[in-house]
Specification:
The protein is α/β, with parallel strands linked by helices. The protein has 3 domains: about 375 residues, TIM Barrel (Alpha-Beta Barrel), CATH 3.20.20; about 60 residues, Oligo-1,6-glucosidase, domain 2, CATH 3.90.400.10; about 60 residues, Immunoglobulin-like (Sandwich). The strands form 5 sheets. The protein has an 8-stranded parallel sheet. It has a 5-stranded antiparallel sheet with strand order 14-15-16-20-18. Strand 7 and strand 8 form a beta hairpin. Bound molecules: beta-D-glucopyranose.
């Protein structure tokens, strides 16, 4: 396995609930993932990032952890985890786990003990309990809001049954924030990291990495200020934690990595997370605008900011928190919510939206650095908007009383076999979210070895990216193209993406790969709108 593999790696995100179900209960699990690793090997990815599979009441899809050192029975056992890791390593694939250090589940024994303890007790000191404001403390301690809607504070009931202190939760009320100024919390996370590193994990994606440290005194949020300057975002003390973690990882052999989920802006600030003694990678913003000058600026700013600290850039088109790219890129920019539902408007037909998603895949995979794929994008899956209210599970939907749809539509269980029950997701009919009929057409077995399928496009792109060492290359912009075309060279490959509504001239030369569904060796002299090509330079 090559050293510093993460600098150029293609990393595939598995959302375990929705990837493959081994036991037929309708919820994906670790044995299901192991049974489908061959498909990921065929796709050619270097590593798999697993969203949380730890013991959890599943109030936020497992991002509410009750035991950081065990597997939730829904997903299997520690032995299943070991088997998955072994099977991945046998295929030369690394495995990264999600670590959730900002908050635990309210079912975590520490939080249960905190609720049982008196105000001021050491058990409460592991979380952020505060007295309320106003008469009898009936107002929350400050004005912070939960990312899922509503206040970021919930009032606890004291042992005598009276309303008592409040606790902070930047997310759901079932996800209390830890107090990272408490050394006991720091020590506990060192123990957790070691637990998984000792088992052989190749690294961690660090959830909500920029929010662990809160400003002294938990001051009110200035509503005029940008969220990036909030008292719970990017506080200087947070870097100390990751330096400590980096030193811990470096004690282990095998090039283990830390990846920051940090959306902080500007990019020069985000790059502080990946200075040489901190994390290895930080996620980049999703490509959200279908606009060549905007994307060119993002690409330049990203490459500049990250190379200035010696870190690779990462390129991400979709994840488990956003509307899938096959739908998102065609929505008007002003209407890009977290999720879509039966009442959402402006959703174009699937066949009209797929070309942009395919073109974006060729852009993402052509850039130097590391690329992330979200499960199902290689099948061209769209967002599923027709999930009925009663089937929805994401907390946003409930915390906004149905006003905002949550992220369920990008988490619908994957289709593997067109003619099998649950489209081959599991052995029976069960599926924790309803699957749409379109899954029959998009199932993996329908796309396998089909020349113009989206799956084949991804497989070819990942293979060419490797053989032409695009991940280790450089972007050199090419002059002479219309402004709606992104045009650059990366080593011996020319990349062209037409983001306008008019065809653009295509230079003479060998087309290596085209996102157009018709052919991969097009000899035409124009590049159609919403199309990308890779050419031999
Ligand atoms: C994860 C989300 C999760 C949140 C709270 C994130 O940013 O990606 O899925 O809901 O953290 O843990």
């Amino acid at each position: 396995m090559n050293k510093e593999w993460w600098r150029t790696a293609v990393i595939y995100q598995v959302y375990p609930r929705s990837f493959a179900d081994g036991d037929g209960d309708g919820i994906g699990d670790l044995p299901g993932i192991t049974s489908r690793l061959d498909a990921l090997q065929e796709l050619g990815v270097d590593a798999v990032w697993l969203s949380p599979f730890y013991t959890s009441p599943q109030r936020d899809g497992g991002y509410d952890v009750a035991d950081y050192c065990d597997v939730d029975p829904l997903f299997g056992t520690l032995a299943d985890f070991d088997a998955l890791l072994l099977a991945a390593h046998a295929r030369d694939m690394r495995v990264i786990a999600d670590i959730v250090p900002n908050h635990s589940s309210s079912q975590h024994p520490w939080f249960q003990a905190a609720l049982d303890a008196a105000p001021g007790g050491i058990e409460r000191g592991r979380y952020l309990f505060r007295e309320g404001r106003g008469i009898d403390g009936t107002e929350p301690p400050n004005n912070w809001r939960s990312h899922f809607g509503g206040p970021a504070w919930t009032r606890a009931t004291e042992a005598d049954g009276a309303p008592g202190q409040w606790y902070l939760h930047l997310f759901d009320t079932s996800q209390p924030d830890f107090d990272w100024s408490n050394e006991e919390v720091r020590e506990e996370f060192r123990r957790i990291l070691r637990f998984w590193l000792d088992r052989g994990i190749d690294g961690f994606r660090v959830d909500v990495a920029s929010s662990l440290v809160k400003a002294e005194g938990l001051p009110d949020l200035d509503p005029e200020l940008d969220e990036d300057l909030a008292p719970y975002t990017g506080q200087p003390g947070v870097h100390e934690i990751y330096r400590d973690w980096r030193a811990l990882l470096d004690e282990y052999e095998g090039d283990r990595v830390l990846v920051a989920e940090s959306w902080i802006k500007p990019l020069t600030r985000r790059a502080e997370w990946v200075r040489p003694d901190e994390m290895h990678q930080a996620f980049n913003d999703l490509f959200d605008d279908w606009d060549a000058p905007t994307l060119r600026r993002i690409i330049d700013d990203t490459l500049d900011a990250f190379s200035a600290v010696g870190a690779p850039s990462t390129w991400v088109a979709s994840n488990h928190d956003t509307v899938r790219q096959a739908t998102r890129l065609s929505l008007p920019r002003s209407e890009r919510p977290n999720g879509l539902g039966p009442n959402s408007t402006g959703i174009a037909s699937y066949d009209d939206t797929l070309p942009r998603a395919r073109a974006l895949a060729l852009l993402t995979l052509s850039l130097p650095g590391s690329a992330y794929l979200y499960q199902g994008e290689e099948l061209g899956l769209p967002e599923v908007s027709e999930i009925p209210d009663e089937a929805r599970q994401d907390p946003t939907f409930f915390r906004t009383e149905g006003e905002q749809y949550g992220r369920d539509g990008c988490r619908v269980p994957l289709p593997w076999e067109a003619d099998a029950p649950s489209y081959g997701f599991g052995p029976g009919e069960a599926s924790w979210l309803p699957q749409p009929e379109l899954w029959g057409r998009l199932a993996r077995d329908r796309q396998q070895d089909v020349a113009d399928s989206t799956l084949t496009l991804y497989q070819d792109a990942v293979a060419l990216r490797r053989s032409r060492t695009l991940g280790a290359g450089h972007v050199e912009w090419l002059p002479g193209y219309p402004t709606h075309v992104l045009a650059f060279r990366n080593g011996n490959t020319t990349v062209l993406v037409n983001m306008g509504s008019e065809p653009a001239p295509l230079p003479a030369g060998e087309v290596l790969l085209s996102s157009a569904a018709t052919s991969t060796t097009s000899t035409t002299s124009t590049l159609d709108p919403d199309t990308a090509v890779w050419m031999h330079a």
